[in-house]
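Subject: complex prediction, re-run

Hi both,

The earlier run crashed halfway through, so I resubmitted it with identical inputs.
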Amino acid sequence: MSTLTTQDLYLSSFSQLQAKLPGQDAAWLKTLRLQALEQFKQTGFPTDELESWKYTNLSLSLLKESFTFDAPASTTAVAAQLKKAGFDTEKAHLMVFVNGQFSKELSSLKTLAKGVAVQNIASALTNETVKAFVGKIALSENRAFTALNAAFFTDGLFIQLEAGKVLDAPVHVVYVSTNAGQATQSHLRNLLVLANDSKANVIEHYWGENVSAYFTNVVTEAALAKGSTLEHMKIGQEDIKGYHIGSLIAQQEEGSHFTARLFSVGGALTRNDIETTLGQKKAECVMEGLYLAKDKQHVDTRTFIDHLSPNCNSTEVFKGVIDDQAVGVFDGRILVRENAQKTDARQSNKNLLLTKEAKVYSKPQLQIYADDVKCSHGSSTGQIDDEALFYLQSRGISREEAKKVLVYAFAGEMVEKIESAYLKPALKKLVDGWMEVS
Amino acid sequence: MTAKPQEPSVEKVTTEEYKYGFVTDIEADSAPPGLNEDIIRFISHKKKEPKFLLDWRLKAYQQWLKMKTPEWAYVHYPPIDYQDVIYYSAPKAGPKSLAEVDPEVLKTFEKLGVPMEERAMLAGVAVDAVFDSVSVGTTFKKKLGEMGVIFCSFSEAVHEHPELIQQYLGSVVPYNDNFYAALNSAVFTDGSFCYIPKGVRCPMELSTYFRINAAKTGQFERTLLIADEDAYVSYLEGCTAPMRDENQLHAAVVELVALKGAEIKYSTVQNWYPGDKDGKGGIYNFVTKRGACRGDSSKISWTQVETGSAITWKYPSCILQGDNSVGEFYSVAVVNNMQQADTGTKMIHLGKNTKSTIVSKGISAGKGQNTYRGLVRIQPAAENAHNYTQCDSLLMGDKCGAHTVPYIEVKNNTAKVGHEASTSKIGEDQIFYCQQRGLSKEDAVNLIVNGFCKEVFRKLPMEFAVEAQKLLSVSLEGSVG
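This time it finished cleanly. Structure:
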């Protein structure tokens, strides 16, 4: 199926679906959806002629498939699965979405303090905050998937913290795709609004089970007001038949701290866009990520840090381990605008190739218009050090075991950086598990 | 206490008139402005070219018509009207020897300090000087001839060595490579040709001085340099241009071929008119430079010092085909006032054990915008390829920009590819330290900038290194105030 017809399919589906989408009583959303659809119509799906999609050709993968909007209602033993994966879910607010729909039965929220809202966004569409932010941070112009998401989203997470409020336990949100035979799609929209000096810890966790091909298209918008702190973790554990396109777009005010972490192991094709605008002075952002790919997986990570204001810091570290015939793409851009004096921006991308057929495309970019700045970036790509391997073998460790030790030495750094006691053991397990199978 | 003499202000230096701005008035035998098949036939006829070349030009023209101006570079300029450019102009009478060369032309070279005749002898440099589009003199030809080295103007080579032209022209930069290369292939007027036979180590540095003259004439040089097996050559290219109000278009193509065991060292000092402080005038420099390491153990090394031009769009590249071949790129790019430079390199690793090194130093001052754009590609067959890239940027002033856009594509796990980049400004503490040791602020800046560029200057032949350092201090004097 060609790009054009896939696009047409979406355009024609809209009129039928329109009445079923949430937000029938929110006029603003109807307008937003129509505008987004118009933008999608103009933009069309990205081709590899577009610089931002240069190394990810969708016409050979995602656009060849056809996905239905009718998601079957399924249940799944999420809590048990999470336990098995090493999460102590009792210590978190758990929210579960199945095939793009919120599942109240599977979710378990702890008591929330006053001034703290954690709910599914479909139940908050008349909320003024939702109206004020949705579609304002992640713009649909020239972004096919964001536009598509705005037009079609069914649900997602909504968090709102009033000034000074702290969400003590992490919010663990699981997005499960389970379609048993039908190629399904889900469009999810998350919104995180943090008022002055508030603090939240959010985990977006994607997985698929018992599936044929499916497509998850997610957009997360985050607004960080003065002095607020957001720790965001995205775990991509989509099934090998899953396509995942996701954006996390943040806007930061004075002195806010934003940490965006990404652990991506799953998916036939995974694309993550992570962006932040350091809009006011002394804002800080940390982006860290680990992508592990094997078989014929394609994992594409694109980051953009916009230093708009002076005295802001950003640190970025992304690591990738690429096995078999998989492909890893990293495209990181740091923009330091004229005004952004005293910027400190650091970016690093390191890739480990495990086989001859594995490929890596790395494009770390600095774009600097201010002079009193400290900016650097580095990128390296290589394979396991033969001498280190030999050394370990000479100590009586088998070659296979030695390889694992060295891969973990490389990738494990990203796990070790994590402070959260809730996440760390599970992520270690995740990385170990990935190496076990490969 | 006597008053301390005033240090030259930023304004004074940046408003300084372009040193080499003068126009020689000689009657040019020009084609009317515009581009069509007839103009191409006119150029080809004027140059008495064989049919294969005309056909090639026409093919390139047809291709060019279908192509669009590349827009991905971080450079901005008003669209160029390609029908308003004169594609051919030549000094009237074709000179046969130096004695016949228009004295005006010789005077121009003198003003530029081009070593000709005795000066050429003293400098130990063979010069194939290009004045506008027709070569006016070639020295040292005899000495080179004895060793079998061919070093002449491109048009001469077309007549005397058509077989080499036919074999190698377009073999590194095909006529349909990009918009500017296609344009050049269609309308190039002259350039340099060089062939170093098997096993010959070229005894002197070969040098071509380009000079743009005759108002409104775009320059389209074509350089083809072939180093046969185990040959060695060091080639220098240097440019200055007269002052002009209109933007001048320059789209050159340079092709290098290194066969088995050969080594080519290609050095450029580019000092074309950058435009006045408001960015008016100035050369548009869209150059395609590429070298092919065809044979095993061959080596191509590009060194460039770019201080001129309003717009620089230039990516000297190496295609490392032969096993154990080596590609190098050393660059200093300086932008001041309204200059824009988008420059870098491509290293395409195809052969086994190929190595490439990239060292790029960008200096931005005034409102200049400087971009490093580079590609390192390791193809699946390139076992044990190595690349090391280092891009440093220095910012002087708060209105300039420095950008780094590397593309790294690795398709073989035995490759080792590393990229590092940093951006910073000259530290107040560094300047303070130099000043308290008795250096003026100007000298301190010069010292620091020269230190910053040292790695690249070391790679230049000595004569060029001196010129480059001088150019750099002229370009940047007073930029930090």
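Residues 42 and 358 of chain B are 42 Å apart (CA to CA).

- K.
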